[in-house]
Request: fold
Amino acid sequence: MGYHQPGRLEEALRLIASREARIVAGGTDVYPGLGERPLTGEIVDVTRLEDLRGIARADGVVRIGALTTWSDIVRGDLSAQFDGLKAAAREVGSIQIQNVGTVAGNLCNASPAADGVPALMALDAVVEVAGLSGPRRLALADFITGVRKTALRAGELVTAIEVPLLPDTARSAFLKLGARRYLVISIAMVAAVLVPDGKGRIASARVAVGACSPVAVRLRALEDALVGCSWSNAANIPANTYLSPLSAINDVRGSGAYRREAALELVRRALTTCVAGGAA
Reply:
């Protein structure tokens, strides 16, 4: 096994480009995925790339460094727009995992049940990627392409996640269903973001569902239906009409039919939480 711990991004990119290397940050997905197998091959540990840490706000965008941990998100000075993301952060494994697991790692692992994905998707997050040939920016919906699959090219590394800022009146929520309260893989999860128009109606809406499809999906038709609706009646939209993008599977955690019913209830509760969190 070859182990490398670069101190600069350019050095890390050269290492990644010159060999088939496994990128490791918190390692909270890498090591469990090995099972009983030893860690072999080339390892590039990116934890010394301090420029990839932290949360910053500039030019109407909140930039979350790739190495920012979930505990950093929970403690971050963020507006109510990010309440859903904070709620998702509290659901990622245990406190110990939240302390070392990174936001970018959660995305790159590309699990259908990754807690951070629907919350970031509902925030219209953009993934910033670096490579020796230059940077790229991809919408999160385009970055995760399938189960454990991303649009990362050989030699590339995620450097940040960017979220466009919404008005201070925006409200968000994240809800998750699992077999128990803590340390559980999701059966279904929903993230919602609502923005009022100041006249008692919804100006914009975003709803994302995870663990009910190979990749988390936005319910675009539901979002369109919510725009212009009364703020106080957001949860009364017949959301089951808009669940067609879901392709929930049967597995040991629940049937596809159960997942769809759970997603419907979580959508209603998430919208209710958003409405309760702010005035129109």
Summary: The longest strand covers residues 188-196. The domain at 171-276 is CATH 3.30.390.50 (Enolase-like; domain 1). The longest helix spans residues 256-276.
